[in-house]
User: What shape does this take?
Amino acid sequence: MLPWTAGRTAIALVAAAAAAAALADGTAWIAPPEAAALRNPVAPSPLSWQHGGRLFARHCSVCHGEAGKGDGPESGELKTRPADLTDPRRLGRMHDGEIFWKIGHGRDPMPPFSRILSDQAIWHLTNFVRTLPERSSDPERFARLETPAVSLPTVLSCP
Ligand code: HEC
Assistant: This one.
């Protein structure tokens, strides 16, 4: 083997190994650097989570599962397993902008949601997705936070 071909083979092998390692730990889908710099204009709040949660149930749980574990009813039919969004390490690696970008762009078989949802809706989803690791370990805390302190019948029965 000529020295330069050996060098190239070595580079190709290193690149292949890096790609395999990236796939193995689930980091293979990398959003572009400008995505990380996007500022989330929607502050996280129980109202934003509720809004995002409703969108998640409607558009995402079919693949990602109701709780986001990647075990939705369609998950077994897909060529790639839907990501487990309750994994704190996975979420910890991503800025809000990267989550926003991935939801908007999709990657086959995940559809690009910017075609059907507004940026605002995708930011609510981003805020909700952020809560999934904690939500999966302490669902009651979020149920309490998202229940309005004063319910409508109480207000109406006031003198
Ligand atoms: C048709 C099935 C499907 C639907 C519907 C779907 N996803 Fe996905 N999603 C996937 C798959 C598969 C992956 C993994 C893609 C990959 O790594 O190539 C993924 C990956 C992701 C990731 C990236 C995780 C990471 O670590 O890179 C996020 C965030 C995500 N989905 C959020 C959502 C949200 C929010 C919705 C709803 C608006 C949604 N997905 C709807 C299948 C789906």
Summary: Residues 26, 28-29, 56, 59-60, 62-64, 74, 78, 80, 82-83, 90, 99, 102-103, 107, 109-110, 113, 125, 129 surround heme C (CB under 6 Å). Confidence is low (pLDDT under 50) at residues 14-22.
